[in-house]
Design brief:
- The complex is a heterodimer of chains A (141) and B (139).
- With 141 residues, chain A is of the alpha+beta class.
- Chain A has a single domain, classed as Hotdog Thioesterase (Thiol Ester Dehydrase, Chain A, Roll), CATH 3.10.129.
- Helices cover 21% and strands 38% of the residues of chain A.
- Chain A starts with 8 loop residues before the first strand and ends with a helix.
- With 139 residues, chain B is of the alpha+beta class.
- In chain B, strands 1-3-4-5-2 form a 5-stranded antiparallel beta sheet, covered by helices on one side.
- In chain B, β3 and β4 form a beta hairpin.
- Classes of the chains: A alpha+beta (141), B alpha+beta (139).
- At the A-B interface, α1, α2 and β2 of A face α1, α3 and β2 of B.
């Protein structure tokens, strides 16, 4: 699905088993609380598919050369189990930098807004930077 | 309840030797099926010695350190930078410091500098967080 201006748009529902499994995996003790509280990086579950498709299918990048550079979350309110989120993603930056030790590094920055599907209000924003690193030959080593 | 002060360093948070099972569990929990985290042959074709852990697994550990320190639902902003790859067998621990206390419409806030480090002190993930200060603060 895409929005009117062509941006990828999808719905993500926060489900209890997912929260429990994620909390366990990142050693967060509050996923088991009653009511469960979500680990701060849980929203990556809502965007991993979009980012993978962008890298592999749209930009056709070699995954051997793609590394995760940065990740950022900005919360308006905490997430809850049962939240229905309307997610809208976009590439906000895509540029190449020449490295001093040779080779070029490409930066692809995506931003995803997650809104409460019922109220329409923004709940959180995720910003993610993927780096395409040079191969050893390109670095001249 | 104790209140946080600039310079406070947070509770102990350690990950004793990441296993391949930990990495597989995170892959399943997050939905990240990138072969670089599960297929040694693929990882070697990328010039790596073995599979590596997800950067977001380390970021998740760091976030868990922050919630253990300031309580659940405390995070308003979290920004991390991935500095080093993490391999099966790595022992990690989190370090943090309160660098600023300030007031926001949501209430009393603290700004933290945090890092996930190997036993030798190498930072694998560094970041900053802004958290709401509540009664759940744990010094």
């Amino acid at each position: 699905m895409t929005s009117q201006d062509g941006e990828p748009l999808w719905e993500y529902v926060v489900e209890l088993p997912k929260v429990r499994a994620f909390a366990l995996a990142v050693h967060d003790r509050f996923g088991a609380a009653d009511p469960p509280r979500l680990p701060p990086t849980f929203p990556v579950c809502a965007t991993v598919e979009y980012v993978t498709r962008l890298i592999v299918e749209q930009l056709k990048l070699d995954r051997r050369r793609v590394v995760h550079g940065e990740q950022e979350y900005e919360y308006i309110r905490p997430l809850r189990v049962g939240d229905r989120l309307l997610c809208r993603a976009r590439v906000v930056e895509d540029f190449v930098k020449t490295r001093s030790r040779g080779g070029e590094m490409r930066f692809v920055v995506t931003e995803t807004d997650m809104c409460d599907a019922l109220s329409g209000e923004l709940v959180l924003r995720e910003r993610s930077t993927a780096l395409v690193i040079p191969t050893a030959e390109e670095e001249g080593v | 309840m104790t209140a946080p002060r600039v310079g406070d360093s947070g509770p102990a948070f350690e990950v004793n030797a990441i296993t391949r099972e930990d990495i597989a569990r995170y892959a399943a929990a997050s939905g990240d099926a990138n072969p670089i985290h599960r297929d040694d042959e693929f990882a070697r074709s990328a010039g790596l010695p073995s599979i590596m852990a997800h950067g977001m697994l380390s970021a998740g550990f760091l976030a868990s350190f922050v919630t253990q320190w300031f309580g659940p639902d405390c995070v308003r902003r979290l920004k991390v930078r991935f500095r080093e790859r993490v391999w099966p067998g790595d022992r990690l621990h989190a370090e943090g410091r309160v660098v600023r206390l300030f007031a926001a419409p949501a209430g009393a806030m603290a700004e933290l500098e945090v890092a996930l480090k190997r036993a030798d002190g190498t930072a694998v993930v560094t970041g900053t967080a802004q958290v709401i200060v509540t009664g759940a603060y744990c010094s």
